[in-house]
Design goal:
heterodimer, A: 2 domains, flat, disordered C terminus, B: mainly alpha, disordered N terminus
C-alpha cells in the first residue's frame, strides 16, 4: 500500500503510463508522417513537372501524365550549340575556379590551424564576416572595375572573381577540417626536418581527404548554379556557361519548347545533384553538412 | 573525416580555440620565422584583396560619382547626390519596400518557420518518410538557381500546376505572376531555401538531450508547451544564426526573380538587386546603381556583424 502511494511521484515506473506514452508516440509518429508527406508533395510538384515534361512529346506547364514517352526533347537539345558548349564552359569556369579556391584555401588554412598567432583570431573573424556579405551587391562595381582593367568578358577574370567570392567560406571550412587532424602526427615529420609545406602535402591533406572533397564539391556546386556572376562578367555568347545560356536560349525562343526546357534543366542539374549525394553520403546522411553550407 | 560539421551555420564545426590547448606555447621565434609561417596565407589574401576588398572599396568610391556606362569622358565627384536622389526616387522606395516584403515573407516567416516545422516533424516521423522528405526538400535546394526559377515559373503561370490544383478544388485561379508577383517569388524562395533552415534545425534539435524532452512529456507538457518552453530556448543560438544567414541570402537573390518575372510586371517584383541592375545597365547610370548597391552592402554588413557577434565565442 505504501508503495502504491509513492508511485505517482515516480511516474516513469508505471507500466500503464509507459504504454500510454508509447501509444501517444505512435499516434504522433503517424501524424508527423502525414504532415511531412503533405509538405513533401508540395515540394515535389515542380520537380515532378520537370522530370515528366522532359520525356513528354507534348509537354505544357502542368504536371500531367505524359502523352507518350520520348527522348525527342533530349535529342533536340543535345547539340554543341545548346548543350555541349555551355556545359564545357561551365566546366572550365567552375573547375578552374574550384581548383584555385581549394589550393588557396588549403594553403591558408594550414598556418591558421597549426600556428598560434595574434593575427589568427582577427583574420578568422574577418573571413567569417566576409562569408555572409551579399556578393550580389558588389557585382556592379566589379563590372566597372573589370572594364577598366580589361578583365571583362574573359574566362580568367571570371575564374579569379569566382574563386575570390568562394574563398572565405572555403578557408573557414578547410580550417575546421584541418583542426581535426591531430598535430602529433606531424611532429615526427618536423623532427625529421620536414618543412611545413612538405608536412601539409604529405601528411595533413591526405589525412583530411574527405574534408578536402567536401570543400571541393561544395565550391563547385555553388559556382555551377551561380547565375549572376557570369551574367555580369561575360558578354560573348560563345563563352557563356550553362546557367546563363539556358536563360538566353529559352528566353529568346519564347517559352514554348517546354519539353526541351525541361530536358535541358535535367541535363544541367544532374551533375550537381549527383555530386551533392556524394558528399552527403561521405558525411553520413547529408544532414551533418547542414549549417556548413550557403556561403 | 574526423570532425564532420554538426551544427548550425559555419559554427557547426566546434571550432573551439583551435588546436591551441594541445600543444605547449613554442619558444619565441625570430620575426622572420613567423613571417615565413604566414607565407602560405598570401595567395588567398592577395586574391581576396584584389577581387573582394578592391571592388568593395571601388564601390564605396563610385557611389559618390556620376559614372555612366557609355560616352562619358570624365566622371566627377558628386558627393551624396546619388543617395539624395535615391531617397526621392519612388522606384527606389518601391524596391526597398518590396525587398522588405520579400525578406520578411520568404526568409523570416517562410524558410525559417517551415524549416523548423519540418525539422521537428522529422524528429518524430518514421525513417523512410524522413529520408524521402529530406531528399525532396534538399533537391529543391541543390538545383541551380535558374532551373529553380524555371520550375516555379511553370508552377505559378496561368496554365501552370498551381492553377490546375485550384481548378480541381473549385477555387478561383489567377495569373499569379501578374497579379501577385512578389508573393509568387517569395514562395519560390521558400521552396528553394527551406532546406537550409531544415538542416540547421535538424542538427540543433539532435543536440537536445532526450531526457529533457522526455521529462517534460512525463510531466504532462503538451507539444506546443514543450516547443515554446524547452525546445525554442535551447536552440535559440541556432535560430539566431539561421535567421541571419537566411536574411543575408535572401537580400542577394537575383537570378530566381530575374528568371521568373524580370522584376515585373512593371516594377511589382523589383527588389533592390534588380533595381540596382536596371539602373546600372538599362539606364546606364553606374554611379547611381552603385549607390544603391552600397546601401544593400551596408545593410548586409550590419546583419553580417550581428552574425559574427553571435559566433564570436567559437573562433
Amino acid at each position: 500500500m505504501a508503495l502504491s502511494r509513492t508511485l505517482p511521484r515516480t511516474p516513469r515506473l508505471t507500466p500503464r503510463l509507459t504504454s500510454r506514452l508509447a501509444d501517444r508516440r505512435t499516434t504522433r509518429r503517424l501524424a508527423a508522417d502525414v504532415g511531412l508527406l503533405v509538405a513533401a508533395a508540395a515540394f515535389a510538384l515542380p520537380l515532378i513537372w520537370v522530370v515528366l515534361s522532359s520525356v513528354d512529346p507534348h509537354a505544357n506547364l502542368r504536371v500531367k501524365t505524359p502523352d507518350g514517352f520520348t527522348f525527342g526533347n533530349f535529342d533536340a537539345i543535345l547539340t554543341p550549340e545548346i548543350t555541349f558548349t555551355p556545359l564545357l564552359n561551365s566546366l572550365i569556369l567552375c573547375g578552374g575556379a574550384t581548383l584555385l579556391t581549394v589550393v588557396c584555401a588549403a594553403l591558408a588554412a594550414y598556418p591558421l590551424s597549426r600556428f598560434k598567432s595574434r593575427l589568427n583570431r582577427p583574420f578568422l573573424l574577418t573571413i567569417l564576416f566576409t562569408t555572409s556579405l551579399p556578393i550580389t551587391a558588389i557585382m556592379v562595381p566589379v563590372y566597372a572595375l573589370f572594364v577598366q582593367v580589361n578583365l571583362i568578358d574573359t574566362m580568367q577574370g571570371t575564374i579569379l572573381f569566382f574563386a575570390a567570392s568562394q574563398l572565405p567560406f572555403a578557408i573557414w571550412l578547410m580550417k575546421n577540417f584541418m583542426d581535426g587532424v591531430p598535430k602529433e602526427l606531424e611532429e615526427a615529420a618536423w623532427t625529421d626536418g620536414a618543412s611545413a609545406f612538405q608536412s601539409l602535402i604529405r601528411i595533413v591533406l591526405p589525412l583530411m581527404g574527405p574534408g578536402v572533397a567536401v570543400v571541393t564539391i561544395f565550391s563547385f556546386v555553388m559556382m555551377w548554379g551561380n547565375f549572376f556572376v557570369p551574367f555580369m562578367l561575360l558578354l560573348t555568347p560563345d563563352q557563356m556557361p550553362a546557367s546563363v545560356s539556358i536563360n538566353e536560349f529559352f528566353g529568346n525562343r519564347g517559352m514554348v519548347a517546354y519539353g526541351q526546357l525541361a530536358a535541358f534543366s535535367v541535363v544541367y542539374s544532374t551533375p550537381v545533384i549527383l555530386l551533392y549525394v556524394l558528399i552527403a553520403r561521405r558525411l553520413g546522411g547529408g544532414f551533418a553538412l547542414g549549417g556548413a553550407v550557403k556561403g | 573525416m574526423t570532425t564532420a560539421p554538426q551544427q548550425a551555420g559555419p559554427d557547426l564545426t566546434k571550432v573551439g580555440p583551435g588546436p591551441a590547448p594541445h600543444h605547449p606555447v613554442p619558444p619565441r621565434r625570430p620575426r622572420t620565422r613567423s613571417l615565413t609561417r604566414l607565407l602560405p596565407l598570401s595567395p588567398a589574401v592577395i586574391l581576396l584583396l584584389l577581387f573582394l576588398a578592391g571592388p568593395i572599396g571601388y564601390c564605396a568610391y563610385i557611389a559618390f560619382t556620376d559614372l555612366q556606362l557609355t560616352g562619358q569622358a570624365h566622371s566627377s565627384f558628386v558627393g551624396f547626390a546619388n543617395f539624395r536622389a535615391a531617397f526621392k526616387d519612388e522606384e527606389f522606395l518601391n524596391a526597398v519596400w518590396l525587398t522588405l516584403v520579400f525578406t520578411v515573407l520568404s526568409s523570416l516567416i517562410g524558410q525559417n518557420t517551415l524549416g523548423l516545422a519540418l525539422a521537428s516533424l522529422m524528429q518524430r516521423a518514421s525513417k523512410p518518410v524522413r529520408t524521402l522528405v529530406g531528399g525532396i526538400v534538399i533537391t529543391a535546394w541543390v538545383l541551380p538557381e535558374v532551373v529553380a526559377g524555371f520550375l516555379l515559373y511553370a508552377f505559378f503561370r496561368r496554365e501552370g500546376t498551381l492553377n490546375a490544383i485550384l481548378d480541381w478544388l473549385h477555387l478561383p485561379s489567377q495569373n499569379w505572376l501578374f497579379t501577385l508577383p512578389i508573393l509568387a517569388v517569395s514562395f519560390a524562395n521558400v521552396w528553394r531555401g527551406t532546406a537550409f533552415s531544415m538542416l540547421v534545425y535538424t542538427a540543433a534539435l539532435n543536440e537536445i538531450p532526450k531526457e529533457i524532452t522526455e521529462a517534460a512529456e512525463v510531466d504532462g507538457a503538451g507539444g506546443w508547451r514543450r516547443m515554446w518552453h524547452i525546445t525554442l530556448p535551447m536552440i535559440r543560438r541556432s535560430i539566431g544564426t539561421n535567421l541571419m544567414l537566411n536574411t543575408l541570402q535572401t537580400l542577394s537573390v537575383f537570378g530566381l526573380i530575374w528568371v521568373m518575372t524580370r522584376g515585373g510586371p512593371g516594377d511589382k517584383s523589383q527588389t533592390l538587386p534588380l533595381f540596382m541592375y536596371e539602373q546600372a545597365f538599362q539606364n546606364s547610370m553606374i554611379g547611381y546603381g552603385t549607390a544603391v548597391a552600397l546601401l544593400l552592402l551596408v545593410v548586409g554588413a550590419l546583419f553580417s556583424l550581428v552574425y559574427v557577434r553571435l559566433l564570436r565565442t567559437e573562433v
